[in-house]
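User: I'm curious whether this sequence folds into something compact or stays loose and floppy. Could you predict its structure so I can see for myself?
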Amino acid sequence: MIVKKFTAATTREALTLVREALGPEALILSNRILDGRVEIMAMAENDMAALTASPTPAAAAPKPLRHDIPGLQVIESMHPATPPSSAAPSPAAAPVPETPETPAPPAAQLVENLTLEVQSIRSLIESQLVNLAWGEMKNADPQKFDVLRALLGAGFSPRLARELSGAVPKALGQEQVQRWMKSALAHNLRCAGNRDEPIAQGGVYALVGPTGVGKTTTIAKLAARCVLQRGAPSLALITTDSYRIGAHEQLKIYGKILNVPVYAVKNEAELNRTLNELGNKHLVLIDSAGMSQRDHRIREQLALLSGNPKVQRLLLLSATAQAGTLDDVVRAYQGSGFAGTILTKIDEALSLAPVLDVAVRHKLTIHYVTNGQRVPEDLHLARSPYLIDRAFKCAPQAPHQARDNEYPILISAREEDAHAFLSAAQAVS
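Assistant: Here's the prediction. I'll summarize afterward.
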């Protein structure tokens, strides 16, 4: 096997040397960056074929029999001219069974094995190229590299990190790049102001979301905030939760404390009739049943709330949920009448990056954030600079913090992400 080493200033030049010396079918064994230059170890396809070729049975030399082992009886091979009766078989010698010939594997199995080997080689080459692209980006475009690493380290998705790092201005220092990154995120994070908050605008708002996200507690906070600002006569509460035991009683306790009427409805007709009776109220809050985003009954709930054009839905998202789960929840609850979101449990989340990432990518308007169980103290208007600053101030956790050489794995976690990153890296180089 002849392995050759090629060095060049860039990956493209090194691959050109490999192609000229060993041909387009050369196999790349390893690559690394040494003293600012790219070093590639490669070998020709013919050498690899000779290395992997299995020897024929005829070429394999038989192992000699050992005569020095005590108790071992050896039967010497007979000369062809000696008759069989001249050699008396030993009674202790057992008959040797014939070894059946191994059938050749079918053609379909050979094709499947070859396909798996090709896929394995392709994955290996892609991972090597991704690592090369990551190293070249670090040297050729340090601003983009710093933004990409900071976003991935904070917990933002590879998709958002690629889009944002691709728009970094060239002539910026390291501190300026960090300020630009946070400013760009804050610009893309939609937060409702004082004039756009539901309590100031008024209307009919239904709080929806998965089980345990904090809908009833958040309604109590909003109700208490409205009573403090506008008085109890300006507010009414409605519950459509007929699934949980004691759900009506919990909301009625809050209504009794605030001196606010509470109504229970079961269907669309009762909801429309109740809303018509409460037409003089400044704010009407509707508590809904918590359901999984994959529950088939969620369609019935959305149909109940969408039947009246006055009802606007506020989706509650838990900051402690996984990014993939949050994406699934948003897709299930979006639609006609969707007014925005409220982020809950931000005091329990190690990082706000996943939920903010979902809000940016889905262009959600964040109205409030909650950070505790106190009513109404733990309800605050959403402020994008504060939320972005919190996203980058998460406590570093060694088991969950990636190293520099592990960020390419995060980028190429899915096949489409790997191809997108390779295209971006080729543009850089």
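Summary: DSSP finds 16 helices and twelve strands in the chain. The radius of gyration is 35 Å.
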